[in-house]
Please model this.
Amino acid sequence: MKTKSLVGRSADCQEQLVEVGHILQTTRQTQGYTLESMATRTFIRPSLLTAIEQGNFHSLPELVYLRGLIRRYGEALGLDGEALVGRLSVPTSTMIHPTRSKDFSAAQLRPLHLYFTYIIVLITAISGLSYLLRRNAPELSALPPLDPLNQSQLQTPSTPSTPVPKAQPTPLDSPIEVEMTLTSPSWLRIVTDGTTEFEGILQPGDTRLLQAKEALTIRAGNAGGVMVSYNNNPVTPLGKPGMVEEVTYSPDSIGKTEKAKMVSLAY
Model:
């Protein structure tokens, strides 16, 4: 009876996933997007997008990760990601293939032993490295402490100081130049002189150099994770973490045109 129940739930999950995949595929084709273009916008491999649209859950990860992929895919197409995920009402256990209890117990015990081994090896390596560093640098402890009020200890009279020429600021190629770096994931829309240059999700470490002649607008879903530098000025966050922020840069001023409160999505 338990096997029949699992088979029935798997069939239900298959039907629900096929229904959601059909909605995503129809919407994508209606909007004229290819799988490759959607992979670039969502950072999801084309093979996974194909498996989602075809409802092939055997080629997809566990349900908890699959929900996140479907949510991101739907929102990139302008759909309600939460509503699409809500269609998958099958419990997580239906996505796990039944295994024998003996194999399951062995799989639970082996990683625990490996973790203890890794911890012991890591502690030993750190202790050995610390000992070598202390042994190979004895001269550092023999140096006399510097007196912060005695500036003569910091001067080297034998080497005359040479004046360092001041760096001249490099002229900007455009009146508006913004360097943007992400410290956490965020959805972004970038409009340059009235033209949408980018709309999608960027990840931590992504950097963009944006230029415009009349106006440059940046709208972020997680403003605290977007660091910007306007025309070589100091780097500052676009706004507060988890908040929607829209900032417009012009040659004369920087104005914030819209500000809304919104909790950032978890990807």
